[in-house]
Amino acid sequence: MTKSDLRKQFFVFISMAGILIASLILLKFIEEPVKSYYSAFFTSVSQDQVDVAIALLYNFFRIVNIVLWLILVITFVRFINALLFETLLRKTSSYEISALVRNIFTIIICLVAFFVILQTQYEGAYEKLAPIFTGSAIIGVVIGLALQDTLGNLFAGLAMQADQPFQIGDVVTIADKGSGVIENISWRGMKIRTFQNKLLIISNSVLGKEAIEVAPRDNLNARLVFFNTLYANSPAKTSQVIREVVRQVENVSPKMRPIVRVRNLGDNGIDWEIKYWIEDYSKFNDTDALVRQRIWYAFQREKIEFAYPTRTLHIETKMQENAFVETTNEIFERLSNVPIFAPLSDEETRQLAESSLIRVFAPGESIVRQGQQGKSMFVIHRGSVFVQIKEEGAAKNIRKLHEGDFFGEMGLFTGEPRSAAVVVEDETEVLEISNLSLKPILEKNPELVQSFSHLIEERRAFLETLQTENNNNREKINKAGVFDSIKKFFGLGD
């Protein structure tokens, strides 16, 4: 509750309290005169009738007093609820009062106030009412048995409220019942919105007997995803590749480093386990699915194979190998149309095509990150990507690249860090040319260094008109010149 709402509540409370107190005082002053006038008005009737009329008038004033006092108490209780439960206690992160406790507090105060007010207006009222309550013990037992489930829910709710095992917004899993996000907690039970968008209502008496798994909303909760690989694949390489991929998945917390470990040496291959922490646990299904998708794409890029059981192993492996296959001629045609490779002869371009790597990336995945050390460049063979830079901590798209476009050439020729990040828009296939593929060509034909340096200078001048460059990284390159930087990076002598 905001300060303005609290001030409004306080003004309403003061106004109501003032009106009620004024009414009680006014009623006290007019009670005796009204009785006297009432007695004088009925002088023509018998005394017994006058006594009956006076008794009715007396009861009328007592009832009005009781009603006004109860309204005053209720107004006071509502103000205390607003001040205590909705303002002060809500600010504490360790404890949250629910509607259940607030309602019980209100009922108890109102009941106590009712009996106190009744005793003040009718002396000896408690003694007169006591035989009624004691004489109805049998009725109370019958009512108690009839309300057994209701009372069980009430007291179970009180016990859980005192312990505070979960809050609204937490993800809970109840064995044989279901799982979902808590929407409401009341004196009767708990409402859970399942991941199928259904509403699951469970009574407090049942909850008190069940084992409940709770994933708090303000906590980093871990998830486990399993996969397997062939024994021929390097465990060290697999662990490094998967850890890097998982860290970039949306909703995976950057505060905790993902754990990738060997779970078992199985009959068909190595069984792996990934443990990572997610920020919004209610989206764990989507996050798990995205992690599995990124693993598949990473395996395609790094030539890591999944392990399959029995006779389906070879059939499925061949199908996977055919998912993204490009012939050398297709790669040669693509590289021949890249302007930066224009100085190469057809034989040199074909040699570069044979050593190029085909890599496939998922939508939303980063191909390179800003500031990352570069030793290769990329040519888009299919798909499209966004070039992004960081401005005030947020990613901003500055260019969109399509089939035939290339990026990362400064990393290939000079080894300087990436000046921007490149993120995939749709499923994209790129050709990666590393410095190890280009080095044999430059060693055989050193004159190409001069040609490449001119093309890179022209390319840099063009890019300077499209984006802001990283001055710290460029300053060292500019002093020595692109020509000397290329020779130094590839280890070519004078």
Secondary-structure topology with pairs:
Elements: H1 3-41, H2 47-88, H3 99-121, H4 125-135, H5 137-146, H6 148-163, E1 171-174, E2 178-185, E3 189-194, E4 199-203, H7 204-207, E5 212-215, E6 221-229, H8 235-247, E7 259-265, E8 270-278, H9 284-302, H10 312-321, H11 328-336, H12 346-355, E9 357-361, E10 366-368, E11 376-382, E12 385-391, E13 394-401, E14 406-407, H13 409-413, E15 421-424, E16 428-434, H14 435-444, H15 448-464, H16 471-480, H17 482-490
Antiparallel strand pairs: 1-2, 1-5, 2-3, 3-4, 6-8, 7-8, 9-16, 10-15, 11-14, 11-16, 12-13, 12-15
Question: Would you kindly provide a written description of the structure presented here, covering whatever features stand out?
Answer:
With 494 residues, the chain is of the alpha+beta class. Helices cover 52% and strands 19% of the residues. The chain contains 17 helices and 16 strands. A hairpin with a 4-residue loop joins strand 3 and strand 4. About 4% of the residues have low confidence.
